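Bench log, entry 3. Co-assembly request; chain sequences pasted below exactly as received.
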Amino acid sequence: MEDSLKPMDAEQLREYGHKMVDFIADYYKSIENFPVLSQVKPGYLRELLPDSAPNQPETLQDVFEDIHRKIIPGVTHWQSPNYFAYYPSNSSTAGFLGEMLSAGFNIIGFSWITSPAATELEMIVLDWLAKMLKLPSEFLSSGQGGGVIQGTASEAILVVLLAARDKTLRKLGKKSLEKLVVYASDQTHSALQKACQIAGIFPENFRVVKADFNSNYAVTPEVVSEAISHDLSAGLIPFFLCATVGTTSSAAVDPLLELGKISKVYDMWFHVDAAYAGSACICPEYRHYLDGVEEADSFDMNAHKWFLTNFDCSVLWVKDRNALIQSLSTNPEFLKNKASQENTIVDFKDWQIPLGRRFRSLKLWMVLRLYGLENLQNYIRKHIRLADQFEHLITSDPRFEIMAPKTFSLVCFRLIPPADDLDNGYKLNYNLMDAVNTTGKIFISHTVLSGKFVLRFAVGAPMTEEKHIEEAWKVLQEQATYLLRRNQDMSQSSCLS
Amino acid sequence: MEDSLKPMDAEQLREYGHKMVDFIADYYKSIENFPVLSQVKPGYLRELLPDSAPNQPETLQDVFEDIHRKIIPGVTHWQSPNYFAYYPSNSSTAGFLGEMLSAGFNIIGFSWITSPAATELEMIVLDWLAKMLKLPSEFLSSGQGGGVIQGTASEAILVVLLAARDKTLRKLGKKSLEKLVVYASDQTHSALQKACQIAGIFPENFRVVKADFNSNYAVTPEVVSEAISHDLSAGLIPFFLCATVGTTSSAAVDPLLELGKISKVYDMWFHVDAAYAGSACICPEYRHYLDGVEEADSFDMNAHKWFLTNFDCSVLWVKDRNALIQSLSTNPEFLKNKASQENTIVDFKDWQIPLGRRFRSLKLWMVLRLYGLENLQNYIRKHIRLADQFEHLITSDPRFEIMAPKTFSLVCFRLIPPADDLDNGYKLNYNLMDAVNTTGKIFISHTVLSGKFVLRFAVGAPMTEEKHIEEAWKVLQEQATYLLRRNQDMSQSSCLS
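Structure output for the full assembly:
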C-alpha cells in the first residue's frame, strides 16, 4: 500500500480531492441532462458489478468511469432543478463545504471531551436558529432546554416520545405502558407511528384523529379533546400530542395554540413537527404559523429539507433537556471523563439514539454565515413565488383543479376526471404521474386526500428557476392531453365495439 | 444572493470546493502540531462567537479564519497518528472521497425508487464484505437475509433487539413485554443497555452476566445457561443474547459457538457485536475469532472504526430480513410507488430507525476498490504489529503491567501501584492518564477491569507508524517517572512531618 494509495496522506488527499471536486462540479453542470427519476429496472446494478471485492487496488479513474456508467443511471437526482417530488432535500455550496470539513475532521463527538468545538458549536448555532425562528427562550441552551441536531425528524420524534413515555412511567410505574395513548392527526408523518412501534406503545393506543377537507387537513382541537376525554373515561393515559406545521401530504398547519392548551390541561407532552415548513418561518410574514409554539415541549425542523443544509440535519429543541437525558443516558466506565463527571458540559450522546455523532453543526454554521439571514429569507420567498406561479398555471387550465390550499411551496392538484369516471380520477392521475415521471424531464409525487389521488408539486430545489416551472407545466400539459385523448379514444372504441 | 454565493452553482462549488480540499489537506499536513486532546475549557467557544447569525453573508475567508482560530483549538484530533484513545475512527483518502460524492449527490435513499443505485450498491458491497469475512451464506442478500448500513452499532443493536422483541411478542402477545429477558456480559457495550431502555425492556430483565479475569473478560457459557434456567423457572422469557468479538474495555472475545448453541436451545435471538474487531477478521489468521457466527441471527461491525471508512458506517447483517421489516416498516400513501408495491426490491427505510438515509455505500465501495483486500489485510496487520511493539515496551519496564491479553490492536496496562497504595493504583493511573493527555502529545483512555483502573492504548489511526509508538512510550515513561517521584517525595515529606 506504501507505493500506491496510502490510508491517509495529505498530498494524496489533496490530489484526489481536487479530482473529486471537479467531478462533482461537472455533475451539477450536467445535472439537467439526466432523467430526474432514475429509469433503471430492479437488479440492474448486480449485472454490472463483480461478485466480490478486488484483491488488488483499482484506480480512481476506474471508479470514476463506473460512477458515470453504472451509478449515475441509478441515481434519482434530488438536486435537479426539475425535482418536485416529496419535499426538497437541499444541497448547497455552503452545506457541501460543511460536509467536506466534517468528513475531513472525522471526529466522533459523542461527549464534549471528544471535540468540545462540536458540542459547543452545535449549541451556539441552534441558539442562533432558534432566535431566527423566534422560538420561546426556554428552547435556548442558556436555560433548562436547548437544541440538538438529530439525523432525521423520525429520530427527533422518537427521542421526545421516549422522553415523554419515561417521564410518565416514572410517575405511574412502568406497567402503565399499556395504557399510554398518543394523539395525532391522520396527516401526521408516519415517523410517529414508527416511533410508537419502537417505544412499545400499544398499536390500539395510537389515536389517529381525522383531519379532513373542511379544515384544510388541519386537525380540529375539539376532535382531539373528545378523543382524550373518551380515553380518560376508559381508564387510559393520554401522554403525547403531536402537531404538524406543514404536513407531508398537503402542507397543512395544525392549530398549535389550541392544541398546546389541550396538552397543558391534560399534562401531555406537546411536540411540534415542522420538518418541512419550519424553514419558511424565518420570514416574518410566515412566522405566524408557529404561533403557539411557546406551548410546545419540543419543536423540530429539517434544515436538510429546505434550508440549504446537506442531509442529514434535523434540528430539535426541547424545553427540558433532563427529560431526554433521563431516557437516553448511559454512563459506562470507558466513556467517563472529568468534564462529564463535573457536569459542567453537555454530552449530546444522551440526547439521541446513537452513541457516535458527526460534526454536523459545521454545515449549518457555514450555511448561516455564508448566506446570512436575509438571503435565506429571500431563498424561501423565491420558492413560494415559484409555487404561486405553478398554482396560477394549474388554475388557468380548466382540466385541472387545486386539491388543497397552497400555504408554502407545495401545490396539490389533479386532473379532473370525467363525471362518470369509475375510480374518481385515481387511475387517471396515477397514470399522469407515471407518464410525466417516465419522461425523465421532471419528478413529482402523490398522496391521497379525502380518498382522491392527488399530485404533489413541491418547489424547493436550490437551482429551480421560473423556466423550470414553465417547462414542468408543459410536460404536465402534454402528458395530460395525451392521456385524455387516449382515454377518449378508448371509450369511443368501446362504444363502437 | 444572485451576486454573491448562490444556493448552488457548479462553478462556485468548484472554486470553493478546491479551497476546502486544500484546507483539509493542509490540516492533515499539520495535524501533529495540535494537542491531540483538545485543551479548551467548557464554554470556550461562546466567548468567541457572536450571539446570533449574521443578516448579511460573510466570506469563506472569514469562515476559514474562524475555523483556524476558534474551531480547531476545540477539536480532539481523532485522525492524529498520536491518537490512541477509545477505538480508532478511521478517515482515509478513499473514505473521504466517498463522503464527498455522497454529499454531492445528496440523495435521500429511503426507498429503492429514490435512487436505485444507493440501495443496490449497498446490497452488493455488503455481500462483498460478508464474503471477505466468510460470513454464513444466510447473511447474503440472495436469500432471506442481507446486509444494511446503519449509522452506528447502537442503532444496529437496537433494530435487531426490536426485531427479536416483536417476533417474540407476536407469538406470546404484547403483554408479555414485561417478562422478556436480555442476556449479555458486563463487558458488553452500553449500547445494549440503551437499546433495552428504548425498547421498553424492564430494567430488571436486562441480565448482565459477569465476565471476569479468569476468562480473560469473555463470558462463560455455563453462567449464561444458569441465568437462563433461573429466569425460566421464574416464569420469565429469555429472548435475546448478545455476544461481543472485541469488547470495548479489553477487546475480549466471547465464545460464539457455545453461546450460539445456547440461543438455539432456548429459541433466542443471537446477536454478535464485532464493532471494533470485526475488521481484523478479514485476515485468515484472525478469522477464527468469528467461528460460531454461523449460529448468529445478526452480526455487526463498524467499518468506520478500523476499516478506513469515514464515520458513519456500521455494517449489519441479518439472516431474516422480514423480522426487521415487520418491526420497522410503515407504508404511508405518500411513499408508495410501483417498485415497492410489486415487492421486487428492498426499501432500506424498513431496516432502520430513521426514514431518510445517505448514500453511504459509496464510501465503503471506494475503500474496497481503491485499497483492495490484500492492502486492507496488511493495514490491520500493521496496527496489530504496532500494538505488539507497544506491549513489548510495556513489559520491558518493570514499573508497568499488562492487564488483559492483547488480542488485536488494544493494549490494556497500568502503572503498578506500591503495595500499600490505598486505592490499588486507581488514582495513580488516573493521574498518569490525565498527565499524558494534558501534554497534548498523545491521547489515551481508560477502563476499569476487576475493580482496577486500567489504561487503554488502542492502535488504529491511519497515519500511525512505529515512531509514534516510540514517542508515545517516551511520553508515558516520562510522566510515570515524574508521578512516581512526586508520590515518593510526598510520602517522604508526610513521613517527615
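The first strand of chain A starts at residue 146 and ends at 150. Residues 361-395 of chain A form the longest helix (35 residues).
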